[in-house]
From TrEMBL:
One MF annotation (Gene Ontology) recorded for this entry: lysozyme activity
Keywords: Antimicrobial, Bacteriolytic enzyme, Glycosidase, Hydrolase
Alphabetical list of SUPFAM superfamilies matching this protein: Lysozyme-like
Catalytic activity: Hydrolysis of (1->4)-beta-linkages between N-acetylmuramic acid and N-acetyl-D-glucosamine residues in a peptidoglycan and between N-acetyl-D-glucosamine residues in chitodextrins
EC number from the UniProt entry: 3.2.1.17
One Pfam entry name: Phage_lysozyme
Record keyword Hydrolase present: yes
GO biological process, one term: killing of cells of another organism
InterPro entries with a match to the protein in the record: Glyco_hydro_24 (IPR002196), Lysozyme-like_dom_sf (IPR023346)
Organism: Candidatus Liberibacter europaeus
Protein name: Lysozyme
Amino acid sequence: MITFPSLLITLIKHFDGLSLKTYRYPAVVRSIGYGHTGFDVCENMQISKD
């Protein structure tokens, strides 16, 4: 498992923001949470802050 410095995580949260529902980037890539993308991100997926 890769760990990241807390400052990096804070910057990502600040600039990317949190989305509890999937949204689509212009390049047809879906994202959820704090910019998480990948094959496991599906249309209409929802997550919670917990």
